[in-house]
Every structure is written in structure tokens, then in C-alpha cells.
Amino acid sequence: MEGENNGKKMKILCLHGFRTSGSFLKKQISKWDPSLFAKFDMDFPDGKYPAGGKSDIEGIFPPPYFEWFQFDKEFTEYTNLEECISYLCEYITANGPFDGFLGFSQGATLSALLIGYQAQGKLLKDHPPIKFFVSISGCKFRDPSICDVAYKEPIKAKSVHFIGDKDWLKLPSEELASAFQNPLIIRHPQGHTVPRLDEVATSQLQNWVEEVLSHRKVGVLVCDNKLDSEVNKSDARVLEEYNMVAQA
């Protein structure tokens, strides 16, 4: 990848969740094994807009808090989304090139949109293709005019998706994973959060990161043990069911 070819670390743009901050996402990721992303430069910008209401992390992490765009309860209508996309494209152009994206919740949803739009030639035409994506509790946009472009074809960027058993976005997160070609899904028992990773999840992510670093071609990730194999078979069935529903 370009960063490595120049002897530099690969760069990851990391987009935080709704009404939090880049600093908070950095703290959230710090609960993972620090060696996982030691070979990357990670950029944690703040959202374009100041939080327009109460933040769920008030009293837990100091302000200021930010949001990328606003939305209605059904998540079908969005305010300031186009402005946010323009802002991020300018940021990516000025501070990149970036090799991959990492996002939590609203940040993951937005990251996937940018990757899908780039793949369809809608934006970032002069920026190298985004090669990989780490999604934590992300989802698809629901506006058909967005979906028909961003998720028109399976997104080829190498992706890993963290999905919580108790996350209120569990099903939408699975739907987002189905938009990618051969996604790796890592499940955890927690809710809508950046999860603490057990040994199995850490090993899965480490193997995925090593494949990113070794420039391996996007493809099905082969697990070494029976448990991981059964998990991937289960995830494949879930994604197949989603695709059947979407086509009905």
C-alpha cells in the first residue's frame, strides 16, 4: 500500500460516534491490545458540528462533544449530511492519503458511506481507493437515494465488523456487513460500545491486521480452528438471509 511503499506507516482515519469526540474514540480504542494498531498512524478528528443536545458520555469523559450530522428517529432523513461529506472529503484530501477507515456508530456508518461512494466514483476520485475498514456498531443509511449508490454493489474494501449481542444496532450492523465483500464479523456479548476483546477476538483481529499489512488480496478469511469456522458459517447464513430479504 502506498504508505508502506514510501517507508511510512499506513494511515487510518478514525471517526467517532454521535455527540462524543475524537479524543473519546481514541480512549475507547485504547482498551484494545496496543500492538494491534502499532504499525499505523491513526487520525482522530472531531465532528464538524458541536453536539446539539445532551451527550451520553457527560460525566464520563470531558467535553467538548461533536456530531457529524443530524437525523430523525427513523434514520431516514438527515440534516447537514452533504455538508459533512464535503468537509470530510476536504479533510481527507488535505491530511491523507488514508489507507483505511475505522469508525464507531455514526462514525462507522459515515465511513462505510464514503467507501461506497468512492467505489462508485461519486467522490474522492483523486484519492487512492480506501483499502480497509474497521466497523464498530455501524449501520446503513436508509434513504433509498443513498442506498442505490453507496451499496449498489458489494464493497470490495477489506472489512471487519464488531457486532454486540446486546447492541440495539445488532441487526443493522449485520445488514451493513452484508454490503461488503467477504466481511469478517467478530461478535461480542456487550452492547452499543467499543468492546473489550477477549483472546479469541484479539487473535481474529490480529490476523486480519496482519493480512492488511501483508497486502493480501481481499478474500474469505480462513480460520484455524473449528470454533472460528463454525462462527463464520453462522455469519454467512445470517448475511444470506439478509440478502434474500433485501431482494424480496
TrEMBL record:
Any Pfam family hit: FSH1
Residues of the Serine hydrolase domain: 8-200
InterPro entries: AB_hydrolase_fold (IPR029058), FSH-like_dom (IPR005645)
PANTHER family in UniProt: ESTERASE C25G4.2-LIKE, OVARIAN CANCER GENE-2 PROTEIN-RELATED
Protein name (Swiss-Prot/TrEMBL): Serine hydrolase domain-containing protein
Species the sequence originates in: Stylosanthes scabra
